[in-house]
Specification:
It contains 17 helices and no strands. By secondary structure, the protein is mainly alpha-helical. It has a single domain, classed as MFS general substrate transporter like domains (Growth Hormone, Chain: A, Up-down Bundle), CATH 1.20.1250.20. Helix 13 runs antiparallel to helix 16 and helix 15 packs antiparallel against helix 16. The protein is globular. 61% of the residues are buried. This is MFS transporter. InterPro entries: MFS, MFS_dom, MFS_Efflux_Transporters, MFS_trans_sf, Sugar_transporter_CS. One of its GO terms (molecular function) is transmembrane transporter activity. Keywords: Cell membrane, Membrane, Transmembrane, Transmembrane helix.
Length: 423
């Protein structure tokens, strides 16, 4: 038992070896590797939900709007997602996650103490740096454990992400227009998760001999190109419609009270939490391609309902739930399909690249919505910046190829033993 508890302090086993020994160790490593997703969602949503109060309460230049500050956060993620993915293939992923979570912890904590919009921009950019590094690293750990478990493993990330989305509006809503305590909570939770990563994640992820030369055409193949296009347009829709302006739309556009808006917004997290693992489990059974299509379809349908089909409280709860059910796992299952499509030696780099493209889309989303919005033109802004990009993201993934052969030589011992027992 002691050896299991201190699994991250020994140097004899890699992450992949330890996870393959037993289903218990696999679950333990998957849970700890997925916990940073909770931080990402919790912080981004307490800021997103509270931004309609936070930004106007600060002093500073008028050009630093809600959308531009969200863009600063997205720039931090985009730039450092490439670094996070590249580093996964070449350095200790454990140290990478510890460093990035530490940066995140300091920056999210500092967000609660800002008094000007330039300070807010700086702290959100720094939060983005932390997220940009641990986001691809965490998903790469989960997705690259074993080919047979890729969908289920990345759905752990999506599940914790959903929990963070669901909880955060209820955490910040009672404090508004004040906002310090929720960000202090976020920083404290990050420290706890950092300690868990230190204790339970081994330093080395996998053993690789001489690295084969990878052609550009092998890395950026047919599937990767299509997945890049889809995730780019999804990034636009997400940051324009949900993380950028959804709470603003509910409170100022539809005149909902804070409490009602919190219930509507949190239903996205509930959808992600409930649907993530079933979608990931099914992806491992029938193919990751089909569940990417399914999740993307949920996003498109949800965005239509949230911004065009209804303004009714219960209707918005339902469509936001549908949107969250798709969003909660879409990125992770899409990245898993991307991991299926390339050599095991560059899984981290491709993961980082796809997150980079996604975050380039998010950089565009907020300012695009703000530009079209003007004073109060929510409907036009939502059609152009949310609904149309979401539909494009869905249509593109229809043309991807299903991958059926494994790109990972190792198989988990617990799975091989169960297969022998079944014969």
């Amino acid at each position: 038992m002691a050896r299991t508890r201190l699994i991250g302090l020994q140097k004899s086993e890699t992450v992949r070896q330890a996870a393959g020994e037993s289903i218990g160790k696999f679950i333990l490593i998957a849970i700890v590797a997925g916990l940073p997703a909770f931080l990402e969602a919790f912080d981004s949503e307490i800021y997103s939900f509270g931004s309609t109060y936070i930004v106007p309460a600060l002093t500073g230049p008028s050009y630093l709007t809600i959308g531009l500050i969200v863009t600063g956060y997205a720039i931090g993620i985009a730039v450092f997602s490439l670094l996070g993915g590249f580093s996964f293939d070449r350095f200790s992923v454990k140290n990478l996650i510890i460093i990035s979570v530490a940066i995140f912890s300091a920056a999210t904590f500092a967000t609660g103490f800002v008094t000007t919009t330039p300070e807010l921009f700086a702290t959100r950019f720094a939060v983005g740096i932390g997220v940009g590094m641990f986001q691809p690293a965490g998903v790469a750990i989960l997705g690259d454990l074993f080919f047979e478990t890729r969908g289920k493993a990345v759905s752990v990330w999506a599940t914790f992400f959903g929990v963070g989305l669901f909880a955060s509006p209820y955490v910040i809503s009672p404090f508004l227009p004040a906002f310090r305590i929720p960000f202090e909570i976020s920083g404290g939770l990050a420290v706890i998760i950092l300690v868990l990563v230190f204790i339970f994640i081994p330093s080395t992820f996998k053993k690789i001999g001489k690295r084969p030369k990878i052609k550009i055409s092998d890395a950026f193949n047919y599937n990767i190109i299509l997945l890049s296009v889809s995730i780019f347009f999804f990034g636009i829709a997400l940051f324009a419609g949900y993380l950028g302006y959804f709470s603003d739309y509910l409170i100022k556009g539809l005149l909902f009270k804070n409490s009602s808006a919190a219930v509507i917004a949190s239903s996205a997290g509930l959808g992600g939490f409930i649907m993530a693992f079933p979608i990931g489990f099914t992806a491992d059974r029938i193919g990751r391609k089909y569940m990417v299509i399914f999740a993307s379809g949920l996003v498109a349908l949800g965005s239509l309902g949230m911004f065009l089909l209804t303004t009714n409280f219960f209707g918005l709860v339902a469509f936001t739930f549908i949107f969250g059910a798709g969003w909660g796992v879409y990125v992770d299952i899409l990245v898993a399909l991307g991991q299926d499509s390339v050599s095991d030696t560059i899984v981290g780099s491709i993961t980082g690249f796809l997150f980079f493209i996604f975050n380039v889309g998010t950089i565009i989303g907020g300012p695009l919505y703000a530009e079209i919005l003007g004073t109060n033109n929510y409907r036009t802004a939502s059609i152009a910046a949310v609904v149309i990009p979401a539909i494009i993201a869905f249509v593109v993934v229809l043309f991807t190829k299903k991958i059926v052969s494994s790109n990972i030589e190792e198989k988990p011992k617990f799975l091989m033993e169960s297969e022998k027992g079944g014969k």
